[in-house]
Amino acid sequence: MEKTTSQKLRLGLFVIIGLTLFVLAVYFIGDKQKMFGKTNHLKAVFNNVSGLQLGNNVRYSGINVGTVRGIEMINDSTIKVDMLIDKTIFPHIKKNAVATIGSDGLVGNMIINIIPGKGMEATVNPGDEIQSLSRIRTDDLLNTLGVTNKNAALLTADLLKITKEINQGNGTVGVLIKDSTLANNLKQTMQYLKSTGQGTSESVTKLNRLLSSLENKDNVIGFLKDTAVANGMKAVIRNLDKSSTEINKVVSNLNATITNIKDGKGAINYFSNNPQFVRKIDSTMTNINQASSRLNENMEALKHNFLFRGYFKKQEKARNKEPKKEETDKKY
């Protein structure tokens, strides 16, 4: 059965529309993958690509600038990644730029982020290799979180035990919290410490005042700080020193004299240590007393002797007249 002209036109139109859509799709996909633009290669070496695949995007400062064109395993710890970068971006990428592998969103595809370098470094050339930084993988992060969760569970269990013991009043903290008597004692102790601190502060204030007052010349210490007084004190001390020297000389001479006396030298030792001389003095004094008594007796005998009686009477009358003369002198 032959197709009509309208059917042929419809078929041709459908094919043309399909080819147009295919070409547009290829163009948009190729343009997104930087297949039709002017691009150059840039390389980076990682020790773990974390699920990176061919065709994943490459971003520079958050802007898509290329795609991943090759992933080559060098050894068990080295993986080289070939990136296809737009030529217009190369003047902005410096040699100290750093390439990292991340994810496009929370659960998106893996991408390569190029972190701009700092300073005045030169720009990269096509085919250069830039530094890389391997970030923590999601699996490693989840494993770490799992260990952290286990440790948190153990810590929570221990904290529950501790809080239970505290609530029951066991242990030092429990006693501090539950025992009202101990709490009151602690309060009193704190009050005593507070009062003691206030007293100490007042004592320090008084001490500061005392130290300040010592600078006043009206006080003893302030008086001593006067240069004139200090010079006078020095002169007194020098005079005392001289007097002390003279006293030492006198004491030395006195000691020599006492030594001579003890050694039997001089009259004093003779007077004090010779018993015969003492007895002689004693007998002499006795003789003198006896002679005096006899002289008194002789005088009495002379008074009664007729030869000397008149003389003694005259003497007595003269002694009696002397008081009368004194009385008359007093009257006049």
Layout of secondary structure:
Layout: H1 5-32, E1 39-46, E2 57-60, E3 63-75, E4 78-86, E5 98-103, E6 110-115, E7 129-133, H2 138-167, H3 171-178, H4 180-213, H5 220-224, H6 227-262, H7 267-273, H8 275-304, H9 309-331
Parallel strand pairs: 1-7, 2-6, 5-7
Antiparallel strand pairs: 1-4, 2-3, 3-4, 5-6
Question: Can you tell me about this structure?
Answer:
There is one protein chain. The protein is α/β, with parallel strands linked by helices. The protein has helices at 5-32, 138-167, 171-178, 180-213, 220-224, 227-262, 267-273, 275-304, 309-331, and strands at residues 39-46, 57-60, 63-75, 78-86, 98-103, 110-115, 129-133. Strands 1-4-3-2-6-5-7 form a seven-stranded mixed barrel. A hairpin with a 2-residue loop joins strand 3 and strand 4 (78-86). The longest helix has 36 residues, at 227-262. The chain starts with a helix and ends with a helix.
The major pleated sheet works out as: 7 strands, mixed, barrel
- Regions with little confidence, pLDDT below 50 for 5+ residues: none
Helix content: 55-70%
Enumerate how many helices there are, as a single number.
Answer: 9
Estimate what percentage of residues fall within beta strands.
15-25%
Secondary structural class: alpha/beta
Q: What's the overall average pLDDT, rounded?
A: 77
What distance lies between the first and last C-alpha atoms, to the nearest angstrom? Answer: 208 Å
**Spatial strand sequence of the major β-sheet:** 1-4-3-2-6-5-7
Order of helices and strands: HEEEEEEEHHHHHHHH
Beta-strand segment tally:
7
What best-fitting shape do the alpha-carbon axes yield?
rod-shaped
Rg is 67 Å
What oligomeric state do the depicted chains represent? single chain
